[in-house]
Specification:
Blueprint: H1 3-20, H2 24-42, H3 49-66, H4 76-95, H5 102-106, H6 119-130, H7 134-146, H8 150-157, H9 161-189
Helix pairs in contact: 1-2, 2-3, 2-4, 2-7, 3-4, 4-8, 6-9, 7-9, 8-9
Keywords: Sigma factor, Transcription, Transcription regulation
GO biological process, one term: DNA-templated transcription initiation
Protein name: RNA polymerase sigma-70 factor, ECF subfamily
Length: 194
């Protein structure tokens, strides 16, 4: 852990202590600090924004209730990601992962889009990630997207480090095999291939 990570964890620990004492401002601060990160992470479990929002709220409800029981065996971020992961799996069992109509999710407000994003590349990678198991997507997101160590991921997913390594290995092999096929598929759809 670098110095910035150590400082961030110390701040998070202080917020947890305040939450354990009933400080709602500390809860709001921690929520704002983790909301985006958890949203990106949970998007590897489900594409349903309504489920993601529900899981984030459930995660922080549990964090609020259990703040006083945090033992400090891991970083606070690892503890929160673990709660979110378990809440996400529970939500998938309850709701499934069937996408619902975008209009029903956003009502009159459309989702925001960054015009500089390369939508074709995101679509291509998204299709490749969809071909992985949920556990493989989660491991990739935690290691490469969020930057957790393999030991942290093992704590979050409540499995041995060897299992995390195996999931990461199989995810990379699968992506290595799938991405070229999907690139050929994209070219064919764009009219670039016969």
């Amino acid at each position: 852990m670098n110095e910035a990570d150590i400082e961030a964890d110390a701040t998070d620990r202080a917020l947890l202590q305040r939450m354990a004492a009933g400080d709602r401002v500390a809860l709001a601060t921690l929520y704002r600090g983790y909301n985006g990160r958890l949203g990106r992470f949970l998007s590897r479990l489900t594409r349903r924004p309504d489920v993601i929002e529900e899981v984030i709220n459930d995660c922080f409800w549990i964090a609020w209730q259990k703040a006083g029981t945090f033992q400090g065996d891991s970083r606070v971020s690892t503890w929160i990601m673990g709660i979110a992961y378990r809440c996400g799996l529970k939500a998938l069992r309850q709701h499934g992962d069937e996408p619902i109509e975008d209009d029903a999710l956003y009502g009159d407000r459309a989702p925001s889009h960054d015009p500089s994003e390369d939508h074709e590349l995101r679509d291509w990678l998204g299709k490749a990630l969809d071909r992985l198991t949920v556990d493989q997507r989660v491991v990739l997101e935690l290691v490469y997207g969020v930057g957790h160590s393999l030991n942290d991921v093992a704590v979050i997913m409540q499995c041995p480090v060897g299992t995390v390594k195996a999931r990461l290995f199989h995810a990379r092999v699968r992506l290595r095999n799938v991405l070229p096929d999907l690139a050929g598929e994209s070219s064919a759809h764009a009219g670039g291939a016969p």
